Amino acid sequence: MVYTLTVHLYANDHPDSIDRIKAKLVEAARIYRQDKETIDWLVMQDVHDPRAFTIVERFANEGSQKYHLENPYWKTFDPYVVPLLDRPMDLRRHEELDTSKDVEVPA
């Protein structure tokens, strides 16, 4: 079962925070996509609110996170990003539903 994290970030109102967060997220995605058992590491920016960002981290399983956390880059991410945020990151953990089979939806 694919294990997925979604992380919502909201930039503070400092003039360069949006550009700095955007650059750090792109850099992080390019690095983290290479981690063992990482299926994908997606970053996105809200189309209506440029201060709002989302990260979607997809791993082969929950244990796969260890490779992400062992990546030396991980220690640089929060110290750079947290001061640029208006509020704490909102991290949520998910197991993706299996959509490969037909289901019967109850009436």
TrEMBL record:
Superkingdom field: Eukaryota
Q: Cite the Gene3D superfamilies for this sequence.
A: 3.30.70.100
The name this protein carries in UniProt is ABM domain-containing protein
Q: Which organism is it from?
A: Venustampulla echinocandica
What sequence ranges are listed for the domain ABM? 7-77
Taken from the record, one Pfam family name reads ABM
State the InterPro entries in the record. Answer: ABM_dom, Dimeric_a/b-barrel
